[in-house]
Amino acid sequence: MSGLLKPRLAPRKSGPLAEWAAFKEPTYVLFSCGCFFYFWALYFGFFYINSYARDIIGFSSVSSVNLLLVTNAVGIPARPIVGWVADKYVGPVNTFIILVASVSVLLYAWIAIKDTASMYAFSAIYGTAVSASQGMFVSSLASLTRDPRKMGTRFGMVCTILAFATLAGPPTAGAIIDRAGGRYLYAQIWGGTVMVLCAVMIVAARVWGTGSKLLVKC
After folding, report:
1. Domains of the chain, each with CATH number or no CATH
2. In terms of Cα–Cα distance, which of 113, 119, 126 is closest to 45?
3. DSSP per-residue string spanning the chain
4. The pLDDT of residue 184
5. What is the per-residue pLDDT across 189-199, written as a single tens digit (0 to 9) for each?
6. Most Cβ neighbours (<10 Å): which of 31, 118, 196, 212?
7. Any stretches that span the bilayer, and where are they (predicted)?
């Protein structure tokens, strides 16, 4: 079967590690800034959902670990399903915006979670939204990159930037929680607000790159 396949583009020779001209494109800069905010707050929930369940709701250590497993497990079916919907109907960038906005709302809603049942429900919904949004990150960048030959370099560049955000996110949340005397309120507000900033930046990148028509698949 592989003998019948033909590559879409000729094999690319090794090129520069960075394409500095990309930072002159507002679409790429806005998308990169938005994703920096996204990855800054992305793992806050995964790191602190079980400690919140223990400290605030009274989960046992075993139950809190089970909660984290639920949060991760629900993402397994979510990613391919959401990816199919994005490819077929909505477009990856539009889907990414919707999911990031949903994660923001969920982080704010986390403030109101005070019992076991709602904690499990929150974990399942939050895990679905976060996992699905992670799956849309790469395809969104591909959708906004006009020349597919530049995709690899641009993806590597943005991932280098995002590495710092990913590394700083959980310690930032932990410092906020410690400063608040063990209360999670301000960290939850921080996480939700950072995700709002991400959504705003991705919307700006989408408008700059493809126009302001809402019904355009992108």
Report:
1. 38-210 (1.20.1250.20)
2. 126
3. -GGG---SSPPPPP--S--GGGGG-HHHHHHHHHHHHHHHHHTHHHHHHHHHIIIII---HHHHHHHHHHHHHTHHHHHHHHHHHIIIII-HHHHHHHHHHHHHHHHHHGGG--SHHHHHHHHHHHHHHHHHHHHHHHHHHHHH-S-GGGHHHHHHHHHHHHHHHHHHHHHHHHHHHHHTTT--HHHHHHHHHHHHHHHHHHHHHHHHHH-S-TTS--
4. 96
5. 999 999 999 99
6. 31
7. 28-50, 56-77, 89-113, 155-177, 189-208
Closest by alpha carbon to 143, among 196, 210, 62, 76?
A: 210
pLDDT score recorded for residue 132: 94
Neighbours of 187 (CB within 10 A): 24
Instruction: Burial-class residue 182 by CB neighbours within 10 Å (0-12, 13-18, 19+).
Output: exposed
One-letter amino acid identity for 17? L
Spatial distance between the Cα atoms of 83 and 138, rounded to a whole number of angstroms? 11
d(CA 66, CA 49): 11
Comparing CA positions, the residue from 28, 29, 46, 31 lying closest to residue 191 is 46
On the question of pLDDT at 47 being above 80, the answer is yes
Distance CA 145, CA 22 (A): 10
Cα separations (Å) of 82 from 19, 65, 121, 169, 206?
31, 26, 20, 25, 19
Whether the predicted pLDDT of 8 surpasses 80: no
Spell out the residues 6+ positions from residue 135 whose beta carbon is closer than 8 angstroms to its own: 78, 79, 82, 83
